[in-house]
Specification:
Elements lengths: L1 E7 L2 E7 L3 E6 L2 H8 L4 E5 L13 H8 L14 H4 L4 H12 L5 H5 L1 H13 L7 E3 L2 H8 L12 H11 L6 H12 L6 H16 L7 E8 L5 E5 L1
Parallel strand pairs: 1-4, 4-5
Antiparallel strand pairs: 1-2, 2-3, 6-7
């Protein structure tokens, strides 16, 4: 089983590849893994491993060096753990400045609840630290496109069609799968690009070993809770 997970407004969009491909929506990670089990390679689009006073997450800066100029902004610098635990954006910025000497973007703050959920899930059980691995859909799409940069923003019609075309080289009927699932689950506020991102992550999971078990790493290798700083692609 190969799994890709992308966050959406009401929870997590999960793509599972076995004999066929299916999409599921889950309210939280605990429910997700109770449903799909742990016998799989799972990639997720959320920062795993956070900065703290004596541990710096620098892997976001490293990832940007792998991306073309027009895609570097798709990588948000992850907030530190203290910022994630803050009650509002203003206090999060102040906490991040104290710990990392940098502020955080509103985009990073907007996904902080998802980051917190993933962080708590990983730290709640030592086995969970190795259950899911951080990845990045835009980087995965480039690699699935023979290392060619994508031309269009994923929020546009051209961007949707471009990504469907890339994924269709690996899994048939991608367009039908996405459109059918979106139509049936539109009321859940999942977006088409969330679905596409989860599929790209699942395909990357399926191809990961064949492609050389590629991982971006940094030093230190783990954060203060022992969560690895790693990005699979």
């Amino acid at each position: 089983m190969f799994v890709g997970i992308d966050g959406y407004i009401n929870g997590w969009c999960c793509c599972i590849i076995q004999e066929n491909i299916r999409i599921e929506l889950h309210e939280n990670l605990n429910n997700l893994f109770e449903t799909i089990g742990t016998n799989n390679l799972t990639l997720i689009d959320i920062p795993l491993g956070l900065s703290s006073k004596n541990f710096e997450r620098s892997i976001d800066f490293k990832l940007r060096t792998y991306l073309p100029k027009n895609k570097k902004s798709s990588v948000f610098t992850a907030p530190c753990r203290e910022a994630v635990l803050s009650s509002d954006y203003s206090s999060a910025k102040e906490a991040n400045k104290i710990i990392t000497k940098r502020s955080i973007s509103i985009q990073s703050w907007n996904i902080s609840k998802k980051i917190k959920e993933a962080d708590e899930f990983l730290s709640s059980n030592i086995e969970n630290k190795f259950l899911i691995h951080e990845s990045h859909p835009e980087f995965c799409f480039i690699n699935l496109n023979n290392n060619k940069p994508l031309l269009f923003n994923k929020k546009t019609k051209d961007g949707f069609e471009e990504r469907v075309s890339i994924l269709s080289n690996y899994e048939k009927q991608i367009s039908f799968i996405v459109e059918d699932f979106f139509k049936k689950n539109k009321k859940e506020m999942v977006k088409k690009d969330d679905i596409l991102d989860s599929i790209a992550l699942a395909i990357t999971s399926k191809k990961w070993q064949k492609n050389g078990s590629r991982i971006i790493t940094q030093s230190p290798e783990n954060d203060e809770l022992g969560i690895p700083f790693e990005i699979y692609y």
